[in-house]
Amino acid sequence: MSRSLKKGPYVDDRVMKKVLAQKDATKKTPIKTWSRACTITPEMIGFTFQVHNGKDFIDVYVTEEMVGHRLGEFAPTRRFVRHGGKMQKELDLAAKQREIEAARASKGN
Fold it and tell me: Which domains does the chain have, with CATH numbers?
């Protein structure tokens, strides 16, 4: 659910202060933040943020298309390994074997 228009977007003061300080600096270093709920504003375009995902900091380079979204949307907190188990392992092994046989067949021609 979006935030009320009357209240305006939530932008963390500390993040905004760091962005404005870096605008004056010549060297742009990544801005480290834990504020995943902070809304991306047009002033943040071109900056790299290191957004905390609960374990690590993930680099997020802000572009024009990201304005209006939250920083946390671009730093996933869960990593998908894959579905499967024993049956999936057998299917993967069979697919790999077919690739090897196809490669051998193409080399033979």
Answer: 13-80 (3.30.860.10)
